[in-house]
Amino acid sequence: MAMPILEARSLRKSFGSGSTQVKVLCGASLSVAPGEFVVIMGASGSGKSTMLHLLGALDTPDSGSVSYRGESVFDGSRSKQGAYRNREVGFVFQFYHLLPELNVLENVMLPALVSNSFWAWRKTRVSARQNALEMLDRVGLIDRVKHRPNELSGGEQQRVAISRALVHKPALLLADEPTGNLDATTGSGILNLLAEFSEAGQTMILVTHDASVASRADRTLTLVEGVIREAGAPTAVEHKSEPQKPEVVL
Ligand SMILES: Nc1ncnc2c1ncn2[C@@H]1O[C@H](COP(=O)(O)OP(=O)(O)O)[C@@H](O)[C@H]1O
Ligand SMILES: [Mg+2]
């Protein structure tokens, strides 16, 4: 196998202390190849969000490591961790987390706004806007760019959130129950959209408690009692239309 893009080793994470301490992760490990679509299943409260936050450096583990392209994420400086989180990773959440005062286009341009200084942003504003518009076109929302989030359906809001997560072309997309707040039909549309990005080569890790989501993945893992288990044989690599991932080339 090619070098994993992401590798987690023996992650441990507890919350609280003493008699109220909750041990959430107890040595969770996983390895993700470039271009893979990995689903992590687990019951509510099993630690899926905690795991995803560690993988994206939104939180730090008590012990264990996360390596991105062979480099330890938590051993570097805080600015290096921030660069990993902001440039290499895109996040999608169950409740979208869009800013209500901003319109759709502004929400998607936001990563470019916050990751640059004002002067850098002024220079790149035109391309940031262009990239946001292209992404919104790809997710089918080009006729909604001036709408506020509360003028959109849940499925449309999640499409905006996906656009925002992918507009800076992160190597890794982390999605936390992205269909958890949607009805089955709308959720299925969101999964189709994510599958399209996966087929175009986007590496993604999606956590869910919904077993129907797992069928979309190249590989399904299960989080049980704080550790990650393989939940079945890999299936989906064959259904990719083109072998865009190096490790699939025969
Ligand atoms: N910041 C926190 N402080 C205290 N407990 C937390 C915190 N985050 C998560 N937990 C606890 O850790 C456990 C796992 O939470 P979580 O990772 O959100 O599970 P899941 O996403 O699988 O539903 C739960 O018991 C939850 O209450
Ligand atoms: Mg969760």
Please describe what this structure looks like.
With 250 residues, the chain is of the alpha/beta class. It has one domain (34-59, 82-248): Rossmann fold. Helices cover 34% and strands 24% of the residues. It contains seven helices and ten strands. The protein has helices at 48-55, 78-88, 104-114, 118-138, 154-166, 184-199, 211-214; strands at 6-15, 22-32, 37-41, 63-68, 71-72, 89-92, 172-176, 203-208, 219-224, 227-230. The strands form two sheets. Strands 6-7-8-3-9-10 form a six-stranded mixed beta sheet. It has a four-stranded antiparallel beta sheet with strand order 2-1-4-5, with helices on one face. Helix 3 crosses helix 4 (118-138), helix 4 (118-138) packs across helix 5 (154-166) and helix 5 (154-166) packs parallel to helix 6. Bound molecules: adenosine-5'-diphosphate and magnesium ion (MG). Residues 15-16, 22, 24, 42, 44-50 line the site of adenosine-5'-diphosphate (ADP).
Largest sheet: 6 strands, mixed
Number of helices: 7
Number of discrete domains: 1
Q: Cα distance, first to last residue?
A: 12 Å
Name the CATH architecture: 3-Layer(aba) Sandwich
Strand order of the largest sheet: 6-7-8-3-9-10
Oligomer: single chain
Radius of gyration, in Å, reads 18 Å
Overall outline: globular
Helix and strand string, N-terminal first?
EEEHEEHEHHHEHEHEE
User: Which small-molecule ligands are present, each listed once?
Assistant: adenosine-5'-diphosphate, magnesium ion
The beta-strand count equals 10
CATH structural fold name: Rossmann fold
Q: Briefly note the structural class of the backbone.
A: alpha/beta
User: Could you tell me the mean pLDDT?
Assistant: 90
Helix content: 25-40%
Low-pLDDT regions: 233-245
Estimate what percentage of residues fall within beta strands.
Answer: 15-25%
What is the CATH superfamily classification? Answer: P-loop containing nucleotide triphosphate hydrolases
CATH class: Alpha Beta
